[in-house]
Amino acid sequence: MTIRSMLVATDLSVQDRWTLQRAWHIARAHGATVRLMYLPPAGQPMAATAAARLAQTVRELEQAHGLRVQVVAVRQEQSFDDLVAQARGADLVVLPHRRERSTAAFFRGQPVLRLLRSAGRPVLVLRRATNEHYRRILVAVDLLPGSAALVQFAADLEERAGLEIFHAVGTREEAVLRSAEAAEKVVRAYRAGRLRRAQERLVTLSDSFTARRNRVLAMAGRGDPGRQAVVQQERSRADLVVLGKGRSSAWGDFFCGSVAHRVLSWGSSDVLVVPDAHLQASAQVAPRRIHEPSRPALALSTIGRRAP
């Protein structure tokens, strides 16, 4: 992954200034050009001094961090569509965490999900007020072919961070077996087989990143992927969760939900969501397929209990 340009949106609040320190750290680490955009919360009027304050913020950043910062011109009616237009030219979009309460958010999803559908760029949602680098990153994978590219994306974002690859085995198939009145012994055997296969594929995936400075852990859980990712993030104290996002419609997300929506709603860490289409476009050919079993890894453990 190469980050040459970043779009950072802010409402210039005190909370945003602290939160966006993380964005400056990422930009400095990657030598990326930053475009800073003023975007007030939905339903709130634009600050009269927004342009002047944005220019002042840019001067402070350039002096304090040596960043190359460009200002997105402040318009009288700055809108979500302006954000989408600017995001399409960025390698990474950085937003402060906001929960919008509106009819559009109810039916079409929160701004982050709408941005992912419209712009198709990786979006980093910042919650934590700190200027330190990420120490532990949890990568939630579905073990499909794009998983290796997602882990690589996370590894490249912060090379010093410890990586933890996590996969939650769903329970829907078990419910189907129970509804068909399968014996409990059959259900348990089916569950054990799925966990074993998930472990083998996680080990193979983690083995491909053994050259990193920090070791890569592989963890398997059981239950709803979104809820289990949040539970594992809290357990491991990861300060960033990275996950992919498949192509979906607003109605699809509304009726079926998504892992990204649940992690953004329930989690407490920063969240990086990478569209699957972006990974497919930028992924390199993997040296080994993740479907091939490998030797057991010492860092592998299984979480068998479900979230409360």
From TrEMBL:
Q: Which UniProt keywords apply?
A: Cytoplasm
Answer yes or no on keyword Repeat: no
Q: Which domain of life is it from?
A: Bacteria
Alphabetized InterPro entries for the sequence: Rossmann-like_a/b/a_fold, Universal_stress_UspA, UspA
For the keyword Phosphoprotein, the answer is no
Please tell me one Gene Ontology term that the record gives under cellular component.
cytoplasm
Instruction: Give the location in the cell.
Output: Cytoplasm
Looking at the record, the residues that make up the UspA domain are 4-127, 134-275
Quaternary assembly: Homodimer.
Q: Which family does it belong to?
A: Belongs to the universal stress protein A family.
UniProt name for this protein: Universal stress protein
- UniProt organism field: Ramlibacter cellulosilyticus
